[in-house]
Design brief:
Layout lengths: L1 E3 L2 E4 L8 H8 L4 E6 L6 H14 L4 E5 H4 L11 H21 L2 E5 L5 H10 L4 E5 L4 H7 L4 H6 L22
Bound molecules: 3'-phosphate-adenosine-5'-phosphate sulfate and adenosine-5'-diphosphate.
Amino acid sequence: MSTMGNSTNIFWQESPVGKLERQKLLNQKGCVVWITGLSGSGKSTLACSLSRELHTRGKLSYILDGDNVRHGLNKDLGFKAEDRTENIRRVGEVAKLFADAGLICIASLISPYRKDRDACRAMLPDAFIEVFMNMPLALCEERDPKGLYKLARAGKIKGFTGIDDPYEPPLNCEN
Ligand SMILES: Nc1ncnc2c1ncn2[C@@H]1O[C@H](COP(=O)(O)OS(=O)(=O)O)[C@@H](OP(=O)(O)O)[C@H]1O
Ligand SMILES: Nc1ncnc2c1ncn2[C@@H]1O[C@H](COP(=O)(O)OP(=O)(O)O)[C@@H](O)[C@H]1O
């Protein structure tokens, strides 16, 4: 019996089928590829190419994209620091479940704070591949496919990453 967060009197329920059996069935090992970077740096483009390539090679993957997850699971969250942290925590937990299920989970989110990404890495020892889209702000701003940098520069969006909200580059990424 244990206490986790606000839940008390909870017990861990074992599954009849283990992780190794799932890996054998799928002929692959689950892991998380975590793509981080500024808006417009190419995260979603890379996530889509990677997923397509893995599919072609017969590997099962699933993309958790920040924009998409914010349409459902995380639609109650905004962009203040606590909300971004909670966004990353939830996606990290979901990614962990996908990896445990045996999938190659591709998470593409700005995930601007190092401590939040590191917390996800700590949840997935040996199965967390952090990829940094190391593109200069000026290039992302020039691309501006959604017109959001323009709005941020005009003061119409507050707390935009890279403009008036921080992005902390990884110190220990895998690329
Ligand atoms: N204030 C602010 N800052 C940054 N981004 C913003 C903001 N408001 C809206 N958007 C849009 O939301 C997308 C990023 O969502 P994420 O969940 O990846 O962000 S975060 O990881 O919680 O920081 C991001 O998508 P991408 O451009 O694909 O990165 C933007 O389209
Ligand atoms: N390697 C690349 N070279 C040139 N343009 C790119 C590259 N990757 C992405 N783009 C373009 O940059 C823009 C932003 O890409 P996107 O994947 O939506 O970024 P993010 O998900 O980080 O916001 C899009 O218009 C996309 O076509």
